Amino acid sequence: MGRFNGKSVIVTGSSNGIGAATALQFAKEGAQVTITGRKVENLEKLHGEMVKSGTPASNIHIVVGDITNVDVQKKIIEETVSKFGKLDILVNNAGAAFGDDKYQGTSSPDSMNLLEKNLDLNLKSVMNITNIAKPHLIATKGEVVNISSIASLNFGALWHSYYCIAKAALDQLTRAQALELIAQEVRVNSVNPGIVATNFLAATGIPDEASKKIYDYVATQRKAFPADRVGVPDDIANVILFLADRKASYYIVGQCLVADGGSSIVMGMHLIDMKAAFSQ
Ligand code: NDP
Fold it and tell me: Does the keyword Oxidoreductase apply (predicted)?
């Protein structure tokens, strides 16, 4: 018996990275899973991995499309309920950072367009698809897990500022949705990952080779990155499943749970070597 036997789950952005690992873990734990994204070949590859790991094909549903499109959002919810009879868990994972290639922060000439793109994907699509899913989640006393980022936290970021703004707004949305929905016994929480090696950097336009170099370099920066390695998708999938598991996390409501190998607790002032300062 898997932990999620008989549960109907949607994982958005499951054609790659954190979402793919999450969908696979849910399926291994007995859930019926809708996987979705724009790249059909990646979704088919994941479908194959799920079947190989023992999930019956009848427990998997694929929806291809752009999550910022309202018709796609409706299709994801409607087809899931029609195929699996209900919806228990919605994981709003699809996300990406859009910036200008000169890293001009919020003063880029294209700033309003870039802000809109970041908000459309990382914030508005989450708000809208959750609203569409709401009656079904109320019917099952379901769970919502949003995927935010440590980019939302209380420090400034010059790199991809619009993305940080969107994820900070997403954290507030998580709290607002949690308050609204807990009255109907639906829990909403978020996971805020630190750096995880996925296609995330490549999706911002950084070539694969350079992305790998960045992940390798970050892993050597132990002062800013206390864990002994960069995160892997399963590190985050484990936390998502914990928050989606009512028995394990029932009393956690409206929280943004950081999973970052400790990087957010050593930023800024904490990097100053006080011992060295005293010895001068
Ligand atoms: P990946 O780029 O590997 O995966 C992103 C997923 O989102 C893909 O499945 C992609 O599918 C999907 N996606 C992106 N845009 C759209 C769209 N318009 N419509 C539908 N699907 C879309 O990145 P991660 O796995 O790392 O990212 C997952 C989540 O984790 C995101 O919300 C990200 O912001 C967050 N995160 C990631 C961190 C990291 O260091 N990796 C750190 C903190 C947070 P497709 O391309 O097929 O459309």
Answer: yes
Rounded CA separation 259/242 (Å): 12
- In tens, the pLDDT along 33-42 reads 999 999 999 9
Check whether 215 has a pLDDT greater than 90: no
Q: Is 87 in the pocket of ligand 1 (CB under 6 A)?
A: no
pTM for the predicted model, two decimal places: 0.96
3-state secondary structure of 256: strand
Q: Token digits for 73? A: 């959002």
Ligand 1 centroid distance, CA of 270 (Å): 30
**20 in Cβ contact with 14 (< 8 Å):** yes
* Ligand 1 pocket mutation, candidates 44, 93, 206, criterion most atoms within 8 A of CB: 93
The model's pLDDT over 77-126, given as tens digits with 9 standing for 90+, comes to 999 999 999 999 999 999 999 987 776 778 888 899 999 999 999 999 99
- Ligand 1: does its nearest atom lie under 6 Å from the Cβ of 120? no
Tokens coding 82: 């029609």
Distance from residue 95's CA to the centre of ligand 1 (Å): 4
| pLDDT given for residue 68 in this prediction | 98
Nearest protein Cα to ligand 1, atom 6:
13
Assign 144 to helix, strand or coil. strand
* Residue 115 CA, ligand 1 centroid: distance in Å: 17
What ipTM is given for this predicted complex? 0.99
For 189, half-sphere exposure in the C-beta direction (CA atoms, 13 angstrom radius) is 23
**10 Å Cβ neighbour count for 198?**
21
Domain 8-200+233-261, second-level architecture: 3-Layer(aba) Sandwich (3.40)
Per-residue pLDDT of 253-272, as tens digits, reads 999 999 999 999 886 666 66
- Structure tokens belonging to residue 260: 């970052």
Question: Known catalytic residues?
Answer: 163
